[in-house]
């Protein structure tokens, strides 16, 4: 199966043995989970503020998508990881600003005990690249 590794300096570099995204035959694009890292400084944005963290996560996803020639509108599936499900409403409010109801992707949301860099939210997604 043919695939292409997607990399951009506009989003944080991977902190382990994985790629920011992989485009696969058939126009499928699989993005690794993004956390609230500032790509310029490598530091956490919004420490303790799930709203700021969610904004940065979506900015990082957007940067990776753009580097592959896609936008948030091309996303067909997301998975949201939260360290506290009580943050769901706040994260959902920010998420809704970027994914409109008419074109919103399928989504799963799960609570986890811990995320990399001790952030509060991580989001991964799958997109279909434009023809």
From TrEMBL:
The record's Gene Ontology cellular component field reads:
cytosol
Per its UniProt entry, which superkingdom is the organism in? Bacteria
Q: Which family does it belong to?
A: Belongs to the RutC family.
Name-wise, this protein is: RidA family protein
Looking up PANTHER family in the UniProt record yields: 2-IMINOBUTANOATE/2-IMINOPROPANOATE DEAMINASE RIDA, PROTEIN HMF1-RELATED
Which PROSITE patterns does the UniProt entry name for this protein?
Answer: UPF0076 (PS01094)
Pfam family of this protein, just one? Ribonuc_L-PSP
Q: What is the lineage of its organism?
A: Bacteria, Bacillati, Cyanobacteriota, Cyanophyceae, Oculatellales
Write out the coiled-coil annotation as residue ranges: none
Any one Gene Ontology molecular-function term assigned to this protein's record: deaminase activity
Q: Which InterPro entries match?
A: RidA, RidA_CS, RutC-like_sf, YjgF/YER057c/UK114
């Amino acid at each position: 199966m043919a695939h292409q590794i997607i990399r951009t300096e506009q989003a944080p570099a991977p902190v382990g043995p994985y790629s920011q995204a992989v485009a696969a035959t058939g126009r499928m694009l699989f993005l690794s989970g993004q956390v609230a890292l500032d790509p310029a400084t490598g530091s956490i944005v919004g420490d303790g503020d799930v709203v700021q963290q969610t904004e940065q996560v979506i900015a990082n996803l957007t940067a990776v998508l753009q580097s592959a020639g896609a936008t948030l509108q091309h996303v067909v599936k997301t998975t949201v990881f939260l360290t506290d499900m009580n943050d769901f409403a706040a994260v959902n409010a920010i998420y809704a600003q970027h994914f409109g109801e008419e074109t919103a992707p399928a989504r799963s949301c799960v609570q986890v005990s811990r995320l990399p860099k001790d952030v509060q939210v991580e989001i991964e997604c799958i997109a279909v690249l434009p023809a």
